[in-house]
Amino acid sequence: MLSAGLGGILVAVSQGPVWGWSSLATLGLGGTGIVVLFVWGLHELRTRDPLIDLRIMSKFPLLMVSLGSIALGFAFFVQEVSFLQILELPVRTEAGLGLSILWASMALAPCSLAMMAVAPLAATMTDRFGARVTAVLGSVISMVGYLISVVWHAEVWQLIIASVFALAGVAIGYAAIPTLVMAEVPYSMTGSAIGVNALMRSVGTSSGATVTGMVLAVQLESSAGFAAPSPGGFVVTFWLGFVAAALAAVLFWISGRRRPGVLL
């Protein structure tokens, strides 16, 4: 029921621009998803030994971590959608850099390598400063990446640098999140709580991809007979990534409550 409810809402959001926001399919799927989630929530609250204990998951610290995970996932996929498009669009458009699919992928390979490289660093930071500080720092680093892309996005090397910062920050934040979750739940709920948090990240990535695509779709302009997203449209998406990462930093920060013997 959880999967069906979320699936209905996410499909409605992603297909809304195609089907029309007031169409029967969009409203029907979205409304059905909301109803199914509501019924699922009632079932979980009335079950003696629920798979997902909503009372614990709704605790303020854990709720803030979940919302921060959605925001950071959103920031993650803003980059995944917008950077590839601006790299691959033809140079005859105002925004495009004219790379092939292969070379556009190669241009974004450094950010993937950066995500792997910072994993040991994130573990060390969590051990020394706590998971909350690490998650906040990762979000701030991602903000820096998006700020770079807002100011400089006319050359391939500029987007490479911006993507490295943006995704290295996401990786640091993602590495710290499980520790934040485990600090707030009983050992018996660890698997369930981390699974729910992973789902929240998926909600964020799905929403980020959808909203980014919608923004670029409505910011079209014709150049040399070719309709493509405008430079201004890409800047809007970069700001969206910046705001999402900033929101994640705030949510992770306010989630913390220091308790003896617990790393936060």
UniProtKB/TrEMBL annotation:
It is found in: Cell membrane. This is Major facilitator superfamily (MFS) profile domain-containing protein. Residues 61-264 form the Major facilitator superfamily (MFS) profile domain. The keyword Disulfide bond does not apply. Its main location: membrane. PROSITE patterns: MFS. It comes from the Bacteria. Keywords: Membrane, Transmembrane, Transmembrane helix, Transport. The chain crosses the membrane at residues 24-42, 62-81, 101-122, 129-150, 156-177, 198-220, 232-254. It is a multi-pass membrane protein. InterPro entries: MFS, MFS_dom, MFS_trans_sf.
